[in-house]
Amino acid sequence: MENQKKIKILILDDEKQFTEELCEFFQNSGFEAFEANTLREARELWAIHEIDLLILDVRLPGVNGLDILQDVKIQFPAMEVIVVSAHGDMDTVIKAMRLGAFDYLRKPFRHIDIQIAIERTKKYLQIQRRLKQMEEKNSLISKSLEEKIERQFIGVSPQILDVFEQAITAANYPDANVLITGESGTGKENIARIIHFTSIRNRHIFCPVNSSAITESLLESEFFGHKKGSFTGAIADKMGFFEVCNEGTLFLDEIADMPFNLQAKILRATEEKVITRVGDTTPIYTDFRIISATNHDIENNVEKKKFRLDLLHRLNTLHIHIPPLRERPMDIQPLLDFFVDDYKTRFNRPNIRIGKDVYKALLTYDFPGNVRELRNMTERAIILCKGDLLGVHDFPLKQPEKILHENKESLNLKRAEMAMVRKALQNCQCNQQATAEVLGITRDALIRKMKKYSIVINKVERE
Ligand SMILES: Nc1ncnc2c1ncn2[C@@H]1O[C@H](COP(=O)(O)OP(=O)(O)OP(=O)(O)O)[C@@H](O)[C@H]1O
Ligand SMILES: [Mg+2]
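Structure tokens for the assembled complex are given below, as produced in the milestone run.
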């Protein structure tokens, strides 16, 4: 790990005895130390080694130490500098601090003085390294965007890079509605936030609404607002989501659950960008973009007449599909690294490491709960892990197939499983996606089980 690497210190002073002594002292104290007696030697050293800390005597013969400091801070902004000055030269010290020196020492100094200064710098350097690592951890978004979306977006696979690129395209078309599909926990809301916060709508509201979480009777007034007295409980005029989102983004989560009755009204509002509050007649113009998301097979809802085709067409001007985690195994390692780093900081367990076999084991798992499941299992593993090394046993990887061995007891289990699959298929009118969700497994896993138990859909339907 980067933060376990030794801190590199370079001492630049024209007194050979001084640099030698200090260099030895630092090496004995666990640092990697280099010495230079001229600016030229120093330049050669910092060109090859990534120096973390420069101890710079500002009274070098023939050169102005403050100029060196200024150049170093421009060329290597991450290099910290402690300046060494003569006793009584407070003026130079003040100038050096203004130019970005981290600390100063006055000659002659005791080893204890430099030790204290270094300890202070070391703590600072370690924090800086951690921040840098977080930034470099395969994150696809900038630090400032991360702050706005309040989440990270990690990934290296071609599939996720493609999703990310589509999100940026969607951000550039701020009036086009976007439909995001993908299994639960794949990061649909992350992508919706990235689209909003990288678009020109980003100074206005991003309003997430889960219509399945609002009672049907209240939905209309939640979306359109109402006039005081228009129904019992309407004690004051109220703005609805469409109005609140003027110039911003309305994020409709779980769109497939939108009650059929409301769909026609949502369609009209989306097409005309004009709404009227419940109990009122005044038209109100509002300019919003809709990003919607679903983990259901929405086309199937259309076929079953549960979702309006015209609304679907209106919502999916751009369609972004996020593939499940098992289809992009390349992302597992960077995501795991990221979550481990995140939780070990949160739980103050800085020495936690990941055992090599963990990555391999995770690759064999099919993550029905996708990235959310990986995040939750990492959190749990770090909480429960006794030592500092995370092992495979810390990760609960359910493998249903392994439970079924050919003995008497498991034969019953097997029968029970087969019966459950058939029952679930019947209850869900043979819709595989819905059945998989009812059973808490992936669609692929369901298909594997159907094959294993020779379950043919037509036959189930007739039963
Ligand atoms: N690429 C990623 N990088 C980092 N974190 C991610 C990524 N994808 C998902 N997550 C995290 O996984 C969790 C689930 O993501 P999110 O809520 O966006 O999923 P979702 O697709 O909306 O799921 P659902 O359908 O259940 O609502 C969140 O904590 C999110 O931050
Ligand atoms: Mg979601």
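The longest strand covers residues 80-86. DSSP finds 21 helices and 14 strands in the chain. Further analysis is deferred to the final report.
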